[in-house]
Every structure is written in structure tokens, then in C-alpha cells.
């Protein structure tokens, strides 16, 4: 029986070509999101970049594209750099401390990158000090293992210049680095911190913190949210144990950007996401996300599985 006999028309060449385009794009989508998120520190902006990359892939004469992954990665990188340049201006009007949007990396931590580099919130925050092109060069090299010639072509720079940029970024990050603890110890320190904070045990909190500990709170003007960094173990301990924060609160263990975190809820409504940065000397950074939009983005990343970060 022919297709005409069965009444089903054969797929058109255009339909088949679009199906192929969708298949190729879906295969690389996780990587595109991973690149864009690391450059931008924003789930929402990274998703916008991925969507724009798809639109451009649709409109491209794909018959002349020899390497779809290289084409799509270059497109996403350049789009992310453009967005980052405009985002810097927008963030100047942000009220208080700006932190990257957290993502849940527990669902599928292997998708989108060969290595889980440049995804921790504290590192993303340090990367913000680099200009967008420097950030992109570091991300492409360290998180996705692109060669210097490939990165140079993607960014329109010379390989020698890319080497210098990546080397400078590494030095900059090393200046900020402390020897991290393993995941189990990180979770133990975070759980102990939450337990002490909930009960108002300031003395125990101070023991967990390094003398130079700092607390950063992202609330974009939310009432009661510290708008400047809080310095020293004593002050961080007092701030973290406020009764107003923990009254009738419940906590859920989560994984945010590759590290243990705690989602704080009240009457079933998430009100804060807490993560810490720890070394063998103790907790030296406490990161609070109170901004409802960023908490919503984190929850959305859990349901969508956009943990395409490696």
C-alpha cells in the first residue's frame, strides 16, 4: 500500500529539515545553557540566550555548517557577552548586594559540561569582576575544555591574547581561593550552622565561622535584608541567628550550584536560600538569597532540570 493509498502524506523536505534542526539543537542545548549561565550568573538571562540561539539556528543555512556544536557554542557565547554588557548597567541600579541566581544541580549534574568548573555561587560572583569577554574565555577553557585557538575564533581574538586572559583570570581567582572541604564536610558545617542559627546559639556559630567571615544577602530592597556585606564572625553570627528569620521556619537540604544548601520556608512558602563557602579553617562566606524572583528561578530549575551545568 502506498502512502497515497493510506491517506498519509509523506513528510516534506522542509519538515524533515526542521526536525533535524531540532534534534541537533536539543543535543547541544545543555552545553549552551551551561556556557550562558556561567557568563551571566542568571538562569533567566541564560534561558533567553538559549532561545535566541535557537531562533538563529532556525534561520541559518545549516547545509553550510560543518560543525553545529562549534556554531551554536559560538553563537551562545557571543550572545551571552552582549547580554552581560547590558546586564552590568542594570545591576548598578540593584538595591543591595547582587548574587548570581542559584540553580539546582542535583537533578542531572553531568549534563552540559565535561567538568563542574566555574559554577559555584562564590566563584561566579568573583567572575563578575572580569569583563564579559574575559569571563567567557575563562569559562570556555576551564569548564568546557575548549582549546585556545577555538576560543580565539569564538571571541574574535588571537590565541596568544586568549592565553593571557585565561592566565590572568586564573591568577585573579587564585588570590580569592582557599582550600575547600569535601562535600560531606561542607554539608556537616552547613547543617551545624543552620542548627545553631535556628536556636540562636551565637557562641556555636562563632566557632563555625572564621574570624574574617562575611555574610552577603541578596534581597533587592526587601525589608530587613542587609544591603551591605556584614563582616566578622561575631556580627555574622548575630545576623544569622535573628529570631525573625527562623520563627516558624522549616529547612530543606538542597544542592545549589554543586554545593550543599538549605532552602528556608515558612508556612510552605520559600523565603530564603542559604549556602556557605567553607575551608579547613571553617565557614568564611555565608550567602543568603532572599530575592523572591531568584528563589523562584531556583525552584523552576529543579522542575525543568536545567541543571545543565556539569
UniProtKB/TrEMBL annotation:
It comes from the Bacteria. Belongs to the sigma-70 factor family. ECF subfamily. Keywords: Sigma factor, Transcription, Transcription regulation. NCBIfam families: PRK09636.1, sigma70-ECF, SigX4. Residues 122-173 form the RNA polymerase sigma factor 70 region 4 type domain. The keyword Transcription applies. Interacts transiently with the RNA polymerase catalytic core formed by RpoA, RpoB, RpoC and RpoZ (2 alpha, 1 beta, 1 beta' and 1 omega subunit) to form the RNA polymerase holoenzyme that can initiate transcription. It holds the Pfam family Sigma70_r2. GO terms for biological process: DNA-templated transcription initiation. Residues 25-84 form the RNA polymerase sigma-70 region domain. GO terms for molecular function: DNA binding; sigma factor activity. InterPro entries: ECF_Sigma-70_Domain (IPR052704), NTF2-like_dom_sf (IPR032710), RNA_pol_sigma-70_dom (IPR014284), RNA_pol_sigma-70_ECF (IPR014303), RNA_pol_sigma70_r2 (IPR007627), RNA_pol_sigma70_r4_t2 (IPR013249), RNA_pol_sigma_r2 (IPR013325), RNA_pol_sigma_r3/r4-like (IPR013324). This is RNA polymerase sigma-70 factor. The keyword Transcription applies.
Amino acid at each position: 500500500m502506498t502512502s497515497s493509498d493510506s491517506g498519509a502524506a509523506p513528510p516534506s523536505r522542509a519538515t524533515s529539515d526542521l526536525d533535524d534542526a531540532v534534534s541537533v539543537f536539543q543535543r547541544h542545548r545543555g552545553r549552551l545553557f551551561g556556557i550562558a549561565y556561567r557568563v551571566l550568573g542568571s538562569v533567566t538571562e541564560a534561558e533567553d540566550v538559549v532561545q535566541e540561539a535557537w531562533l538563529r539556528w532556525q534561520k541559518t543555512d545549516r547545509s553550510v555548517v560543518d560543525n553545529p556544536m562549534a556554531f551554536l557554542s559560538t553563537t551562545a557565547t557571543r550572545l551571552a557577552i552582549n547580554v552581560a554588557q547590558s546586564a552590568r548597567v542594570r545591576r548598578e541600579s540593584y538595591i543591595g548586594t547582587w548574587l548570581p541566581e542559584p540553580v539546582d544541580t542535583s537533578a542531572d549534574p553531568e549534563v552540559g559540561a565535561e567538568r563542574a568548573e566555574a559554577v559555584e555561587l562564590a566563584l561566579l560572583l568573583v567572575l563578575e569582576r572580569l569583563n564579559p569577554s574575559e569571563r567567557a574565555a575563562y569559562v570556555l577553557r576551564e569548564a568546557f575544555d575548549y582549546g585556545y585557538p577555538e576560543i580565539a575564533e569564538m571571541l574574535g581574538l588571537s590565541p596568544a591574547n586568549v592565553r593571557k586572559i585565561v592566565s590572568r583570570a586564573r591568577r585573579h581567582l587564585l588570590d580569592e581561593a582557599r582550600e575547600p572541604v569535601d562535600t560531606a564536610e561542607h554539608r556537616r558545617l552547613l547543617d551545624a550552622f543552620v542548627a545553631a542559627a535556628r536556636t540562636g546559639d551565637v557562641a556555636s556559630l562563632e566557632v563555625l565561622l572564621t574570624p574574617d567571615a562575611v555574610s552577603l544577602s541578596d534581597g533587592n530592597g526587601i525589608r530587613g535584608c542587609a544591603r551591605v556585606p556584614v563582616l566578622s564572625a561575631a556580627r555574622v553570627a548575630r545576623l544569622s541567628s535573628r529570631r525573625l528569620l527562623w520563627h516558624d521556619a522549616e529547612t530543606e537540604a538542597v544542592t545549589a550550584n554543586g554545593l550543599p544548601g538549605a532552602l528556608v520556608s515558612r508556612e510552605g512558602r520559600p523565603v530564603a536560600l542559604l549556602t556557605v563557602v567553607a575551608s579547613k579553617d571553617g565557614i568564611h562566606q555565608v550567602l543568603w538569597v532572599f530575592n523572591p524572583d531568584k528563589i523562584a528561578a531556583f525552584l523552576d530549575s529543579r522542575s525543568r532540570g536545567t541543571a545543565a551545568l556539569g
